[in-house]
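Local shape tokens:
==================
===
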Amino acid sequence: MMASRKDHRSDRARDLALAAARVAEETRGSDVRVLDLREITPVFDYFVIATGSSRRQMHAMADEIEAVLKKERHELKRGAEGYEEGRWIVLDYGDVMVHLFDAEARDYWDIEHLWSDAQHVAVPSAGTATR
């Protein structure tokens, strides 16, 4: 019973991460990645990482991710950081953390390298994803 509850939570987190990635792509985020951290840390299950072209575009991406996850998945973010500055916006969904960077901040922080042991999850192209 315990394993199935954990598996269900993990499936929910994976679906949530992929939904956030889909929205990031649909709102013109680039280099969208999903990292599976379940085997590395008990703190998070997934990271979604995307690059925005401007502060305004990153705000649009963050706002749309929040709106879609609330409407379609009934998920509310637990918190957010960096929205005002707009160079690195973090949306906290508990098991899933969404990181939206401008290009310079993404290169500088290099999250994929820091979490290089994480498995990469294939992100369906926004054009082929189903709703």
